[in-house]
């Protein structure tokens, strides 16, 4: 087994309100599924400002913090947990650079956006952030331990 003896890595990936508004939820989910990651949790949520301030607390001193929280609170988001080998680093690669103009074509941002303040998706930047973000957005029972190798239950 490819993952034998290892705890698979998890990342917190989120479609931001502009991604939801533009109908890119399926596109973003599709890319993670196709790459081979396993979906462990997903929910749509109109996050409150305090919740978003907690999520982005490391950026609270930045000049764009207020605008960032307002943007993230402007509509619903789709929060997800994706699991698999190197999910955090590879997930960030799949998203592209923070500034979409620096994102290579083929990445989500490089294919779908041009504004840093409207960059359609979020991905955890380290395993520690992923763990913090997953526990901020999901209750333990919302994370589903299904095994994609077991096919019996589909029949
Ligand atoms: P994210 O957390 O959303 O995945 O983004 P990131 O790690 O790539 O970038 P980070 O530096 O953590 O910034 C978080 C989000 O804030 C917005 N931003 N605006 N106006 C600006 O200069 C500016 N810089 C960052 C972006 O939406 C960025 O994703």
What would your notes on this structure say?
This protein is α+β, with helices and mostly antiparallel strands and 155 residues long. The protein is built from 7 helices and 4 strands, in the order βααβααβααβα. The radius of gyration is 16 Å and the shape is globular. Ribavirin triphosphate (RTP) binds next to strand 4. Ribavirin triphosphate binds at residues 59, 64, 68, 98, 116-117, 119, 122-123, 125. ATP binds at residues 16, 64, 92, 98, 109, 119. Its EC number is 2.7.4.6.
Question: Could you give a quick summary of the protein structure above?
Answer:
The protein is of the alpha+beta class.
**What's the β-strand tally?**
4
| Rg measurement, Å | 16 Å
Classification by helices and strands: alpha+beta
Which stretches are poorly predicted, pLDDT < 50 over at least 5 residues? none
Approximate strand percentage: 15-25%
List keywords for this structure.
about 160 residues, alpha+beta, 4 strands, about 35% helix, binds ribavirin triphosphate
Fold topology:
Elements: E1 10-15, H1 17-21, H2 25-35, E2 38-45, H3 49-55, H4 65-72, E3 77-83, H5 87-95, H6 108-112, E4 121-123, H7 127-137
Antiparallel strand pairs: 1-3, 1-4, 2-3
Residues 59, 64, 68, 98, 116-117, 119, 122-123, 125 line the site of ribavirin triphosphate.
């Amino acid at each position: 087994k490819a993952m034998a003896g290892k705890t698979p890595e998890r990342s917190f990936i989120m479609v931001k309100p502009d991604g939801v508004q533009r109908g890119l939820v399926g596109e973003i989910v599709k890319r993670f599924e196709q790459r081979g990651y396993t979906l462990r949790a997903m929910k749509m949520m109109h996050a409150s400002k305090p919740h978003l301030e907690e999520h982005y607390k490391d950026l609270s001193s930045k000049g764009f913090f207020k605008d960032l929280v307002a943007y993230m609170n402007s509509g619903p988001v789709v929060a997800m947990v994706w699991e698999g080998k190197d999910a955090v680093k590879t997930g960030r690669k799949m998203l592209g650079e923070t500034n979409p103009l620096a994102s290579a074509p083929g990445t989500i941002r490089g294919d779908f956006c041009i504004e840093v303040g409207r960059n359609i998706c979020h991905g955890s930047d380290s395993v520690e952030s992923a763990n913090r973000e997953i526990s901020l957005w999901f209750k333990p029972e919302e994370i589903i331990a299904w095994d994609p190798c077991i096919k019996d239950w589909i029949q």
